[in-house]
Amino acid sequence: MKEMDHFSLYDDTLYSIYTAADFNEMRSELLDHMKQLVPHDYASILLFDRNSGEKVKTVDFYCEPSAFMKAEKKYLDAYPDDIGRRIALNGENAVVRISSLQPERERLHSKIYRDCYRNFNIYDMLQILIRSGQDMIALMTLFRTKEKGQFSDENVYILKALSRHLNTVFYKYFREEDSAATVNSAVEEITNRVHMTPKETEILTLIFLAKSNPEICEELGIKEHTLQKHFQNIYRKLNISSRWELLRFSVNAGTTGIIGRAG
To answer: How far apart are the two ends of the chain, measured CA to CA in Å?
Structure first.
């Protein structure tokens, strides 16, 4: 492949993952572009529970093509503790080519290989650990059959170049998910204490999501003076007198770290 073609594919990959509407679309776009950028036969993305402490726990996984889910499901079900070993292979590296670490005989005669991957004729694996700081978010692995051979140094280089972008994009989606869950929890706690109308509940949610007054008005289709009336009712019910007190109330209700914008 020509260098310009590589650059174009790499650029298209970055654009697609940064502009995807949601995590599922991003994941699908990523794996679709990887087929051309780093040719492979199968791919999987294992997502980790970031609240499981020191022990790594897989909470979800996705495979392409879907038929390969059979192999990864068997691996996760039969060898749940081995995922830590797979991650440990990376060490301080973002990207690892398994054929560089394990000779062919060792790779193709292990019990895990025989149980999970032999039926798919897997020959080499190229994996990238996606993380935020020390927190592991996901492990993406590309698999090749013997017909395609080992992954090349160029394949490793391309995946390493992508690594910081994948760290950023995956973290972005999961941070948004965590924030939404925290906001929902805080709003629920408040509405359990004090009766709020459906509209007031919507406004509380948008405030805790750091929406400004104009953004709230646009999203709810109301005028500024109507929003101010809702604010007055919310303040009265919570025995407070300003938006900043409401945000402090949200911290006490469990939304630590959410910062609102005065409107």
So the answer is: 53
Closest CA to 83 of 46, 50, 109: 46
What are the Cα distances from residue 166, in Å, to 17, 84, 160, 172, 230? Answer: 8, 20, 10, 10, 41
Percent of the chain with pLDDT strictly greater than 70: 86
Q: Quick one: pLDDT at residue 257? A: 37
pLDDT at res. 178: 62
Q: Which residues contact 120 (CB under 8 A, 6 or more apart)?
A: 41, 42, 68, 71, 143, 145
CB-based contacts of 211, cutoff 8 Å, min separation 6: 219, 261
Question: Measured between alpha carbons, how far is 201 from 184 in angstroms, rounded to an integer?
Answer: 10
Q: How far is CA 76 from CA 84, 127, 154, in A?
A: 11, 16, 30
pLDDT tens-place string over residues 127-155: 999 988 778 889 999 999 999 999 999 99
Q: Tell me what pLDDT residue 252 has.
A: 55
CA distance 86 to 82: 6
Which residues have CB under 8 Å from 253's CB, separation 6+? 185, 186, 189, 190
Q: Which amino acid is at 251?
A: V
| Tens-place pLDDT, residues 158-198 | 999 999 899 988 988 877 666 666 777 778 888 888 899 99
Spatial neighbors of 208 by CB under 8 A, at least 6 apart, are 183, 186, 187, 247, 250, 255, 258, 260
> What pLDDT does residue 184 have?
79
Residue 231 Cα distances to 66, 207, 216, angstroms: 49, 10, 12
